[in-house]
Amino acid sequence: MIKRLLHRKWHIKPRIFAMLLLLMTIVFSSIHIAFNLFTNQYIRSNVEIQLDDLTNNFGMKGGNHQNNPQDELRLPDLSGQRPNKIGAHGEVIVLNSNYEVKEYNVFSINEDTDELVQIANHLKNKNIDLADAKYVRVDTAEGVYYVSSVKDANRPDRYFVFYVSVAGINNLVDAINFAMAVIMAIAMLICFVIANRIAGSVTQPLKKLSKFAEEIGKGNFTRNRFEFSDIEFDELGEAMNQSAEKLDLYDKDQRAFFQNVSHELRTPLQSIRCYAEGAECGLMDAKKSGATIITETDRLSELVEDLLYISRVDSITSHVEKHENDLRDTLALCAEAQKPLADKNGIRFEYLFDDQPVMFSYNEKHMYRALSNLISNALRYAQTKVTLICRQSGKQIEVSVIDDGKGISSEDLPHIFERFYKGRDGKHGIGLAIVKSVIEIHGGKISVSCEHGTCFTMIFNR
């Protein structure tokens, strides 16, 4: 049953109230138990000291006695007893061996004889040995007493029974316990009000944020302006707004992506179909048609390969497998692979590398693809040379690919990393998007400047 309650789902309001109630119950119960244990111990210790004082000073052999006018009584004179810390006053009665009240002080006693008889009967019922009774607790209808007794040395059948009433202090303790119970009841009421306010301050923002999340799930990425009293909810609302903005941008990118893909795929396919039908009908030279079909097929294959690659890059997380390698080697390999094309166009490579290895942890396959795309772009626009830079300064690594061409126009520059954006003499508009994705996966940043030709600069932090 308890296990089921613990695993049961609760609303925030009753959960907060239950937790506050449990806390208050534990605190008040601890205070109540500690208070009563302490006061009972304090009362008992003081009563024991007083009873010891009475029995030792007034009940010993040869103690002072007074005479009662009604009868010759041998009661000790207790007027000289020391005051007690709890305000209780000791009294004495004389009982015989049959627990009958034989003597009592009519001048100082506050209790009536019925109360004295009740004390005697309690001792009789409990079969208390009157010769040496110490600190016996006696509960009567009128109050609580502690009793100690000694034998009268002059009268063998008589016993001095000293008793101290603690009814007054017990009434005070009961009043304090009642006050604590009232305080706890009031505190529970306050606890309910506080729980209600706390739960309201939590549930209201949560309901608004849940509704916002629902709208995002339905495809409504409209940002909301939240003003919560708690900083944490404000931060959560801002984070959800940023997520909605990114999802909105991603959704638009996806739509543009599919539109551009369909357009890019349609063009070569239409060319292939047109030349194939022309060759089939004898309207076009078969050899020339075949060459065109092969060219368009290569273009289509290259486009599909780029699309598949960028799709894989999008699914890569920061946990991509990486190994520490010399970036100079990878950059040099990329340039060497494209050297035949460079030689064909009369373009030379200039290497500005550090003399020492530039070690960096990266995925060689992805980095090779990104650097190859940059070098391929540079060869397309360069006039005489392409400069490759790879150097390290402190914890930063700089890799640059520079061509001495005309540079990128100011209209195209803000859009060159967008997917399917084609500038002057561009191919598919995917190459630089791949470069940017790969660089970001490795925690780097890429920038471009066009003061003298085009310079792509990548910065990595070790």
State the end-to-end CA separation: 57 Å
- Give the uncertain stretches in residue-range form: 61-73
Number of helices: 10
**Cross-sheet strand order for the largest sheet:** 4-3-7-6-5
* Average pLDDT taken over every residue: 80
**Percent in strands:** 15-25%
- Overall shape: rod-shaped
What's the β-strand tally?
14
Residues in helices, as a percent range = 40-55%
**Main beta sheet strand tally, sense and closure:** 5 strands, antiparallel
Measured on Cα atoms, how large is the radius of gyration? 50 Å
**Succession of helices and strands:** HHEEEEHEEEHHHEHHEEHEEHEE
Structural class: alpha+beta
Tell me what the structure shows:
- The protein is of the alpha+beta class and about 450 residues long.
- It is about 50% helix and about 20% strand.
- A five-stranded antiparallel beta sheet has the order 4-3-7-6-5, sandwiched between helices. It has a five-stranded mixed beta sheet with strand order 9-11-12-14-13. A two-stranded antiparallel sheet has the order 1-2.
- Strand 1 and strand 2 (about 70-75) form a beta hairpin.
- The radius of gyration is 50 Å and the shape is rod-shaped.
Q: What topology emerges from the helices and strands here?
A:
Elements: H1 2-7, H2 12-57, E1 65-68, E2 71-76, E3 90-96, E4 101-104, H3 113-125, E5 136-139, E6 144-151, E7 158-165, H4 167-217, H5 231-280, H6 286-315, E8 323-326, H7 327-337, H8 339-344, E9 348-353, E10 359-362, H9 364-381, E11 385-393, E12 396-403, H10 431-441, E13 445-449, E14 454-461
Parallel strand pairs: 9-11
Antiparallel strand pairs: 1-2, 3-4, 3-7, 5-6, 6-7, 8-10, 11-12, 12-14, 13-14
Helix pairs in contact: 2-4, 4-5, 5-6, 6-10, 7-9, 9-10
